[in-house]
Write a sequence for this structure.
C-alpha cells in the first residue's frame, strides 16, 4: 500500500498505480485527517507510477492556494522512508478562464511551453516549473471574456504551381481576454494538406454531422490578444462537373467579420470572368493592397448577404496565332462519277471562334463537323466558308466532306492541289492520301509514306494538342474537359487499333502488349479522363467520325 497527504477539500475522482502498464490498485480509502491510503492487489517492487485525479473548489473571490500532495511512509512497514528526488508544477487552464499566480514561494523559473500546449483534459498549459518541498502560492482565476472587434477576413484565390490555392487572412482585435482557438466552417474539399502560415499553431479538421462542410480548429501555441491575425493556406480540389469557385469560409463562435474576396482576372494566358451572388464590387483597405500582384490582374468583392458565391464563368483566351497542327486530306474517285474528298484539320484556334475554309475551283462543300458534332458553315464568296468552332481556346478537329463532279482535265491530265485549306492559318504538317486508278499519278514535292506512318503522325498530332497548358486545365470544369476529350480519345483509339498494340507500346509488366499505352493514360489522368479513355478502348470499334467512315469505305 501507499499513503498520501492531500488538501482536505480535494475532491478525489480517481487513483491509479501502474507497474509495466498494469493498474495494481485494488481500492483506496480516505481518513478524516485527509490521508489517502492506496491498497494494491499484490506486493510490487521496482518502477511504478502513482497518479491521482481530483478537483479543488475556487473561492468566490477567484483565489485558491496551490495544493500540496505528499507521499508518506505507509503503515505495516511496507515503506519505511520516502525521499522525493524532484518536484515540478504544471499549471493548466480551460478556455473559459484566465489564471495567474500570486505570492509564489519555493518555485523555480517558470518555463513557457514551446510545443503542443493543449492537454485533451486539462486544457492549455500556462507554465511549468520546479518546486521546493515547501512551495506555496495563490492561483487567481478570472473569466476569459475576450471582446472581439474590427474583424476582417480576406480570401485570395490563386493558381500556383499548377494547382488552385486559397489563402485566408483573418484579422481581429481581442480585448479583455485571450483567444485560445479560432474555428472556421470550411468547404468539404479542404483536406489534410492545409497549413497555418501564422501564427504557429496546431490544426484539427473534422466533419460536421449531417452537413457536407467541415470544421477547422486553429489552436495557436500562444493565446492571441490585442491585434490578431490568422493566415491559412489550403489547396483546392473540385469534384467532376463542379466549376471553379471561390471558397466560402465562415468564422464560428465569434462576431461576424467583414469579408472580402480577391479573385484573379487572368490565369496564365486565359482571361477569366466571375459570376457572383450576394457579393458587391469593393476596394481593399490600403494595408491589404499587397495581397494582389497588381490592380489589373484581380478583382475584389465584398459579401453583402449570407452564403455569397463566386463562380468562374466565361474564359477568354488571349488572341494569338491560329495554327493547324495537322491537315489530313484524302481523295478518291466517286462510284457515281467525279471525285470525293475528306479533310480533317487538327487546329488550335488562338482565340478565334470560327475558321475560314477555302475550296479549290470545281469543289463544293457537302458536310462539316467540329469535334465530332455536325456544324453549319456560313457561305462567303464563291468557294469560301466560315465554319463555327466549338471553342475559341481549346484545340479541336474540323472535318469536311467535299465533292467534285469533274475529273482532271483530259487535255492537261493535271489537277492542282490542295483542294481545301484554311485561309491564312499556318499548317505545320500535311498528310495527303489519294485513291486513284492506275492511269493517275500524283506529282508532289513531298515524301511518300506508308499507311502506318500516316496513323503514327495522326496520333502524334492528337497527343501534342491534348497536352493542354496547366492554366487551361485549371480554368475548365472536369465535365467540360471530358466532353472535349471524348472525340480525341475516340480518334486515338481508332488509329491505335489500326496500328496494333505492338506498335503502340512496349507492353505492360507481364510482357503483354496493351491497347492503351502508358503515355495515353498519363495524359488522360492529367485531364481526369482515364476511365473515359479505357472505356472507349474496351468498347466495340464503331466508325463515328468522318475520317473513320472514310477508312471503312476506302482503306479497310
Amino acid at each position: 500500500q501507499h499513503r498520501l497527504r492531500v488538501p482536505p477539500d480535494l475532491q478525489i475522482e480517481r487513483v491509479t498505480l501502474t507497474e509495466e502498464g498494469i493498474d495494481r490498485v485494488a481500492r483506496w480509502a480516505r481518513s478524516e485527517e485527509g490521508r489517502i491510503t492506496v491498497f494494491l492487489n499484490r506486493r510490487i517492487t521496482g518502477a511504478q507510477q502513482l497518479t491521482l485525479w481530483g478537483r479543488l473548489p475556487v473561492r468566490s473571490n477567484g483565489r485558491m492556494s496551490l495544493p500540496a500532495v505528499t507521499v508518506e511512509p505507509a503503515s505495516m512497514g511496507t515503506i519505511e522512508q520516502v525521499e522525493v528526488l524532484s518536484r515540478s508544477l504544471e499549471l493548466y487552464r480551460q478556455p473559459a478562464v484566465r489564471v495567474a499566480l500570486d505570492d509564489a514561494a519555493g518555485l523555480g523559473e517558470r518555463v513557457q511551453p514551446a510545443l503542443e500546449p493543449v492537454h485533451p483534459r486539462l486544457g492549455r498549459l500556462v507554465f511549468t516549473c520546479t518546486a521546493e518541498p515547501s512551495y506555496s502560492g495563490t492561483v487567481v482565476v478570472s473569466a476569459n471574456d475576450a471582446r472581439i472587434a474590427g474583424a476582417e477576413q480576406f480570401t485570395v484565390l490563386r493558381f500556383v504551381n499548377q494547382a488552385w490555392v486559397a489563402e485566408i487572412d483573418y484579422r481581429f482585435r481581442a480585448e479583455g481576454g485571450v483567444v485560445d482557438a479560432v474555428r472556421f466552417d470550411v468547404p468539404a474539399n479542404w483536406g489534410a494538406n492545409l497549413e497555418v502560415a501564422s501564427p504557429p499553431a496546431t490544426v484539427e479538421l473534422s466533419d460536421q454531422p449531417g452537413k457536407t462542410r467541415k470544421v477547422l480548429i486553429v489552436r495557436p501555441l500562444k493565446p492571441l490578444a490585442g491585434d490578431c491575425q490568422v493566415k491559412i493556406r489550403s489547396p483546392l480540389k473540385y469534384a467532376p462537373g463542379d466549376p471553379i469557385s471561390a471558397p466560402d469560409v465562415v468564422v464560428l463562435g465569434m462576431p461576424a467579420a467583414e469579408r472580402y474576396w480577391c479573385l484573379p482576372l487572368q490565369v496564365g494566358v486565359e482571361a477569366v470572368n466571375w459570376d457572383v451572388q450576394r457579393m458587391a464590387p469593393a476596394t481593399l483597405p490600403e494595408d491589404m493592397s499587397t495581397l494582389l500582384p497588381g490592380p489589373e490582374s484581380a478583382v475584389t468583392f465584398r459579401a453583402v448577404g449570407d452564403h455569397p458565391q463566386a463562380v468562374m464563368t466565361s474564359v477568354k483566351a488571349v488572341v494569338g496565332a491560329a495554327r493547324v497542327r495537322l491537315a489530313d486530306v484524302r481523295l478518291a474517285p466517286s462510284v457515281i462519277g467525279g471525285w470525293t474528298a475528306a479533310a480533317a484539320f487538327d487546329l488550335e484556334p488562338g482565340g478565334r471562334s470560327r475558321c475560314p475554309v477555302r475550296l479549290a475551283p470545281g469543289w463544293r462543300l457537302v458536310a462539316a463537323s467540329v469535334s465530332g458534332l455536325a456544324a453549319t458553315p456560313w457561305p462567303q464568296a464563291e468557294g469560301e466558308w466560315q465554319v463555327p468552332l466549338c471553342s475559341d481556346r481549346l484545340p479541336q478537329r474540323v472535318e469536311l466532306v467535299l465533292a467534285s463532279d469533274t475529273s482532271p482535265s483530259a487535255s492537261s491530265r493535271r489537277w492542282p492541289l490542295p483542294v481545301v485549306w484554311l485561309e491564312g492559318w499556318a499548317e505545320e504538317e500535311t498528310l495527303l492520301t489519294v485513291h486513284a486508278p492506275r492511269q493517275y499519278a500524283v506529282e508532289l514535292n513531298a515524301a511518300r509514306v506508308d499507311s502506318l506512318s500516316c496513323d503514327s503522325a495522326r496520333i502524334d498530332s492528337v497527343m501534342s494538342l491534348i497536352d493542354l497548358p496547366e492554366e487551361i486545365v485549371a480554368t475548365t470544369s472536369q465535365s467540360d474537359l471530358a466532353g472535349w476529350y471524348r472525340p480525341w480519345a475516340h480518334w486515338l483509339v481508332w488509329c491505335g487499333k489500326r496500328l496494333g498494340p505492338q506498335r503502340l507500346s512496349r507492353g505492360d509488366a507481364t510482357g503483354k502488349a496493351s491497347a492503351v499505352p502508358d503515355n495515353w493514360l498519363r495524359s488522360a489522368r492529367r485531364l481526369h479522363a482515364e476511365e473515359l479513355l479505357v472505356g472507349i478502348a474496351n468498347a466495340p470499334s464503331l466508325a463515328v467520325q468522318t475520317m473513320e467512315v472514310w477508312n471503312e469505305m476506302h482503306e479497310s
Summary: Confidence is low (pLDDT under 50) at residues 506-513. DSSP finds seven helices and 37 strands in the chain.
